[in-house]
Structures are given as C-alpha cells and as structure tokens.
Amino acid sequence: MIKSATFKFLKEVSENNDRDWFKLHKNEYDNALQNVLDFTAALITALSKTDPTVPANLDPKACVMRIYRDVRFSKDKVPYKTNFGIAISANGKNFKGPGYYIHLQPGASFIAAGSWFPEKEELKCIRQEIDYNASDWHEIIDDTDFKKLFGDLHQEGKLQTAPKGYDADNPEIEYLKLKSFTVGKKLTDKELTASGSVESVASLFEKLYPFIIFLRSAIS
User: Fold this and answer.
1) Which residues pair with 104 in a beta bridge?
2) In the chain, which stretches have pLDDT less than 50?
C-alpha cells in the first residue's frame, strides 16, 4: 500500500518546490520513493499473473519515473514533480504500444491503460482494427463492468474531422477520430493507503487486460 507519509511528502513538495527545501528533506524523499518501489514490485508480481508479457521479476526501478523535472525547454522552472508516476510494460516505463500507468498525487491519483498517442503506423493499425473488428471492439468497451469502472475513452487530441481514408458516416467514426486510445479511473488517497490497495489496482488492470490485448493485436 501507499503510506500516508508518501502523500504527505508529495503535498509538502507542492508547497516547497525548491532545491534547498528538497535537500533538507532528502530522507523523506528516499522513504517515499522506497514505498513507491515496494508498491510497484508487489503490483508487478500481481499483474504478471494476468498479463504474461509483464515479467514477475521486472525491476520496479525500471517502472517508476523520476521526480526531477526536465526544465531545459520549459518556462516553468520548478525542479520537482508533485507526483510519482509508474508505467508498467514488458520494458518498464520505456515502451511503445499499450501499457499500464499509475499516477500517485494527493487528491489526484488515477490509473490508466492503453496506447497513448501511438506513432503513425501504430495509429493506422489501431484504426484499421477498430474498423474491421468493430464487434470485438464493442464487446470490450461496451461491457457493463468496463463502462461502470472506466467510462468512455479519453478524448485528448481527438480529430475534428474524419481521418484520411475513412468516410464521415463510418459507424465507428468517433473512435476513428481518436489519436490516443486510453481509459482510466480516479483513485482516492484512502483507497491507495488501504491494506489491499495492490490487489485492488491489480484487479482493475485485470479488467483492462482485454482492452490491452485488442490494441496489441492491432499493432502486432
């Protein structure tokens, strides 16, 4: 589970986002990071039982994103993120294609899964798979439990008009306009600090596995 102290540390980072403060509280950061690594390791073990492409011995350090911001090309020069990000795939956080994500932030945590802004050829393949196999697609995304838990696909970056090669009256046009194929669910601090939080998150990812499989099949 995520410790309350980890969320407390992230809240304090948001209120004191400078290097001098962080240096004085480095021990608290180390403790929070270790908590997130332990949580990630347990989640990897659980997820590997559902998704065989995720190695049970995957190093959690390969999945947890750095808290240090890259400010070289940003007008916002605050040095630290106010969250921990965890991305899980066969290759940890450095992956292309479908995968799983957990965002840990006080009052703003969530899980997500899918293919986030795939590259041109992968995007083309996913659209083609939705067009050709609409019944399989809808069997997944229209499932009652899926809808209740995750709602609709995220609309970030969606095209205003039909993509090249598709008619505007295509019955799947609203999905074909998407440039990213992800869904998610918000999680409360209470849910994540509960003793069974790893199992709860793993269960959500298990329900998302058919969605992941559809996307993988599209680009394989």
Assistant:
1) 84
2) none
Q: What value, to the nearest 5°, has the Cα angle with vertex 119 and ends 113 and 125?
A: 80
The matching CATH number, chosen from 3.30.470, 1.25.40, 3.10.20, 3.30.930, for 4-219 is 3.30.930
Report how far apart, in Å, the C-alpha atoms of 113 and of each of 10, 17, 29, 33, 60 are.
Answer: 23, 29, 27, 23, 18
Per-residue three-class SS string for the chain: CCCHHHHHHHHHHHHCCCHHHHHHCHHHHHHHHHHHHHHHHHHHHHHHCCCCCCCCCCCHHHCECCCECCCCCCCCCCCECCCEEEEECCCCCCCCCCEEEEEECCCCEEEEEEECCCCHHHHHHHHHHHHHCHHHHHHHHCCHHHHHHHCCCCCCCCCCCCCCCCCCCCCCHHHHCCCCEEEEEEECHHHHHCCCHHHHHHHHHHHHHHHHHHHHHHHC
**What values do phi and psi take at 112, rounded to 5?**
-150, 160
Residues linked to residue 85 through DSSP beta bridges, in sequence order = 103
The answer to whether the CB of 8 falls within 8 A of the CB of 189 is no
* Full-model pTM: 0.94
pLDDT in tens, 153-187: 999 999 999 999 999 999 999 999 999 999 999 99
Residue with tokens 């180390």: 30
- In a 13 Å sphere around the CA of 160, the CA atoms on its Cβ side amount to 0
Domain residue extents for the chain: 4-219
